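Collaborator request, handled under Task 6.
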Amino acid sequence: MNPAQQFGQVQASLIERRTDAKRIVDEMYQGVRDKGTSFVGLDGLRQMPQRLRAAVREFRPDPDNFPATFKALKDIEGDLARFSESRVTAVSLDAIESQRKTLGTLIDAAKNNADRKAVTALKREFDNAVDDAWESSLRSGDPAQLEALKSARAARANFAQRFEPEGEAGSLVESLSLGNITPDEAVAKVIGVTQVAPPKAIPYIRAIKMAASNDPAVIQQLQAAHFANLLQDSAGNLLPYGRIAANIQRAERNTGTLIRELYTPDQWAQMRRLADATSRLSVRGPDANVTGGGRGLRGIQQIIQGNAWLGTVARLPGVQWAVNAVQQGTAAAQATRAAKGVVPVAAPSAVIPAASSTQGGNLSSATRNAPR
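Structure tokens returned to the collaborator:
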């Protein structure tokens, strides 16, 4: 797999986490309804139109560029006006939930990203306004129901913090977790289409880690995508040894903050050792001594075997085949030197089992890229 395909694993995890978190929030709110009062006093909702307009003021919504946002505002204002004219004193939670579902539908049908962001902001403020009015209505009612509502509000706030945060990074996480962006588009923002990550990568990575609750498995997938990007060209073929070493060194030099965000000091120390090893193999040939290891391929093998993290990342789909290609390319180079009368160090067996074709590896093309 290329970095984008590797990043698809991150997206799949975020989609699953968002779905589970939303289900929990919905169940908590249903539990509040089941406890008793199912109406919200209209007086508590009278300020909703002003609150909603304030929430989307920065977008300056108009019917041409923000059709979904404009429709949502008009619908809610129209409903509240009709309630007032009919002298309704309370609104059922079922009616409010119906309007909330309509807002969700409008988010999906938004004309453009700006319209989608505006409806999302409107929906967030709609939820806050309803909860404020509901809480006010319950203060003279059942204390247990009021506490249940507060717990549900806290869960919703946590959901918004994880999957609907503010800013560009928040928009990326929201799009990822809703499946509204492809892995190729996401990896271009977070990892980069070249071997150097873009300047805005750090807030993106932080937002993804927060959405995933800093799950080590997701962080490892991010590392693997970044790692694979340092080892491969745009077509997914393994780079020559010298380029691999240069990419690792340049990543440390130009994106140090990103490296510290994504890797522990010990993990990046192993990457430095890998850079040193591939650099020596590039300059001095396949039998060169490798710092911290043996000669040639054996040195690479010992670096990978000697560190649990690097060994694990190297075995992830999208990286495993690249490491195999390094090994096979070096073995081929040694065989060539042996045919010319130069006795090489015996090549050890591969540390990592050969990747299957289903894992996206292209060992033949990768091996051709290795220096001879």
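The cover message to the collaborator said: "The longest strand covers residues 39-41. Strands lie at 39-41, 90-92. Please let us know whether this matches your experimental observations."
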